[in-house]
Amino acid sequence: MNSKNRRAAAVGAVVALQALVLGACASGEPAGSGTRVEAAAGSGPAGQPRIAAVIKGLDNPFFQAMKQGIDDQARAGGVPVTVQAANSITDTTGQADKLNGLAGQDFSCYVVNPISGTNLIQGLARLSALNKTVVNIDSPVDPAAAKSANVKLATYIGTDNVEAGKMAGRRMTELLPSGGDVAVIGGIAGDVTSGARVEGFQQGIGPNLKVVQTVAANWERQTALTAATDVMRANPDLVGFFVANDDMGLGVARAIANSGKTGKVKVISVDGNKDALEAVKAGTLDGTVSQYPYAIGHMGVEACQAAAAGKTLPPNVKAPVEMITKDNADQALASTPKPFGTYDDPFKALIQ
Amino acid sequence: MANATLAARDREAWSARLKDLGFWAEWAALVGLVVLVIVFQVLNPTFLSAGNIASMLVAAAILIILAVGQTFVIATAGIDLSIASTMTLGAVAFGQAFAAGWGLPLSCLLGIVAAALVGVANGVIIARGRITDFIVTLGTLSAASGLALILADGKPVTIIDPVLLGLSTGGLGIFGWSFVIAVVVALVAHVTLFHTRFGTHLLATGGAPESATAMGISTERIKIAVYTISGTLAGLGAILLVARIGAAEPAANTSFLLNSVAAVVLGGVSLFGGRGTIIGPVIGALLLVALVNGLTLLGVSQFYQPLAVGIVVVLAALLTRFQR
């Protein structure tokens, strides 16, 4: 599936390039499949970007939605785009190799979502030396490393994970007005994203809630289920769990159901993937802080378009986050993968 | 193995036996488990409560089944690095079939068959192609996860089924059904390994392949058989995994691979093949689960848990050097 899409994307990119070399704007070759994005015939002012995107592993619905956002906006804007993804969420070197491969080709704008703060620095330094536009989405490039390697980032678009954690903390405080002990299930021990969400949660909870334990469950649903069972055993008075992502959140919800404490122990997680939204609607999950990878990908392409049109980009753009509860789960499900509320998109105005 | 002879010995032999490192090495996992249980029980009295024992046994069920499969392979001096990815593939095959409305029995069958086929492929390539086990299963590790991703299109499938729910939550007293299944698997494996001709041939293949061939044992067929067993058990583990988490996910499950090998090593099975037990790896699996459970109960910082697991595994491996 993926490799086919990727091949189609590569073919699409080559075809588009040839068209450009011939001095014509890509004039809508009959598309084969998926990723091949056609430019609308007759469109294409001088400021038309050629976009390459490198994102994290496509084994996760979150990044699939991100890719969908990139493809949709590219199709709407009639700009060619090539999307490459790492093999998995831990494949830091493979992702760097993919960026280096794309860096050697003639793209004008690169959208990158690095797995770690520093794994793409080498390729990005090369791009900055060539004066290409680099748009950083989702996971930030480490600012100190970027500075020392002379990497110039046009803009950063991403979710503030600390803010997402805070929202979860505030919601937990609303759900548990009388207070009590809560536990936290994080991702891999030492993971930055997980750490930021947990930190935010601790800032967001009110004074009468107390975090009694933090456990690392490696982003695995089964491990989270086991850990939550053990934590509830150790703390029989526990009233809530904050879980760093939805997949693990569903495992924790299962553990609570198994011990017959549904409703007594609250669970709030982060991500807002489809299964979690359905669980919130059904009441097994008490809430999820929904992020919008679709909107992040979408804005990444818009940023490239704005840069190509010669506009100055805002340096730091916050992607929308929404607290999904039983009351708005239906709305969220109906509009998924797009946010159901309105959100601030500064790039829209720039490319009008 | 050793305890059959143990009972026959005289009382005087006991003191000598306790001084003999070989005895401790033979039972490293059991000794470790007993020590851990005592330590955790002293530090936290809820450790040995019925509820906690029940949840530990259920949490250990999948690992026990995988460790048994891994034992068969390691007893022939091989190693199956693809066992966890094979389980993932089995889970995904099961999930896709279930989502397509095949019904539970057929879906279970498909999950097991898909995983068993990976095992057959491993065995055939290793035996007929004469390539090192390590390399082949390293390749299938990747191939099986890739196939799982392709089949599932990277998306988890939520599976809600009363039978599966009963399987993961019901049981006989403190023994959850999934643990009961794991015990049955271990018993069948024990009988197969020590009371059948196949088991004898298998251990001979691991211990002295040339002699085994000279005796007229087809080591190729034995190799194919053990990898098929390992794959089939991974498929069974897949069904328990789906029952446990209520979803079929194409996630990597790397921790299961590492823990399955660790449980076998803890159980005193020689990585050079030819000698091993089934009870050892089962206790090894229980020990690993008890370790994480106890550390969680005590609220030990998450950063210390991997360190503790690593130390225990290396200590056990050191002890096995003194095996007779």
TrEMBL record, chain A:
Q: Which PANTHER family match?
A: D-ALLOSE-BINDING PERIPLASMIC PROTEIN-RELATED
Q: Name one Pfam family in it.
A: Peripla_BP_4
Q: What is this protein called?
A: Ribose transport system substrate-binding protein
Q: Which UniProt keywords apply?
A: Signal
Concerning Gene3D superfamilies, the annotation shows:
3.40.50.2300
Tell me which positions the record assigns to the signal sequence.
1-26
Q: Is Glycoprotein there in the keyword field?
A: no
Where does the UniProt annotation locate this protein?
Answer: Cell envelope
* Residue ranges of domain Periplasmic binding protein in the record: 51-311
- Name the major location: other
* Annotated TM spans: none
UniProt lists the family membership as follows: Belongs to the bacterial solute-binding protein 2 family.
**Is Hydrolase one of the keywords?**
no
TrEMBL record, chain B:
InterPro entries assigned? ABC_transp_permease
Alphabetized, the UniProt keywords read:
Cell membrane, Membrane, Transmembrane, Transmembrane helix
Superkingdom: Bacteria
Give the location in the cell: Cell membrane
Transmembrane stretches in the record are: 21-43, 49-69, 81-98, 104-127, 134-152, 172-194, 224-245, 251-271, 278-297, 303-322
Which topology term describes how it sits in the membrane?
A: Multi-pass membrane protein
Question: Is the keyword Transmembrane in the record?
Answer: yes
Name of the protein this chain belongs to? Ribose transport system permease protein
